[in-house]
Amino acid sequence: MKKIIIIAAMLLGFAVAASAQPRALGLRLGYGAELSYQHNVGSNFIEADLGLASFKNLQVAATYNFNIAEFGQGFNFYAGPGIGLAFGQQLSVGIAGQAGVEYNFASAPIQISVDVRPYFDFVGVGLVGWWPHLGVRYCF
Q: β-pairing, 32-41 with 126-128?
């Protein structure tokens, strides 16, 4: 358990400390609400989220997403693995996968996305998190 928490802290620290640009900061809303931070690493990106899972547990999650395909002007399909940790009514520690589509506006520094992040909880309930989320972020 300590190893998983240390790995989660290191991954989140890497996401914040990396110096590549651009970055995006905003909200990810669905079956919960999260503050969402994205940081590009080459053509891929790290996403770190902090918020309320199911509107009752404080959750920290991080994923490394690969840009799988670009289509149209500004659309990207991405997917990648990650980890998560939640506190509240119960402790939750697990692995996650994220897949989604994002659109980057050419005329404004705004990004919108729709994604799912299924999560396998090792401590409690098993597989959770198949709800779609809408992300709105400001790119800088």
A: unpaired
pTM: 0.81
Using CA atoms of 53, 7, 135, 50 in order, give the dihedral in degrees to the nearest 10: 50
Among residues 89, 91, 95, 102, the alpha carbon closest in space to that of 36 is found at 102
CA nearest neighbour of 121 among 80, 75, 99, 88: 88
48-94: pLDDT as tens digits: 999 998 778 899 999 999 999 998 888 999 999 999 998 887 888 99
Cα–Cα distance measured from residue 100 to residue 114, given in angstroms and rounded to the nearest whole number = 6
Alpha-carbon gap, residue 140 to 137, rounded angstroms: 10
How many residues does the structure list for the chain?
140
Q: Is the dihedral of CA 121, 51, 53, 92 positive or negative?
A: positive
CA distances from 114 to 45, 68, 86, 111 (A): 16, 15, 22, 11
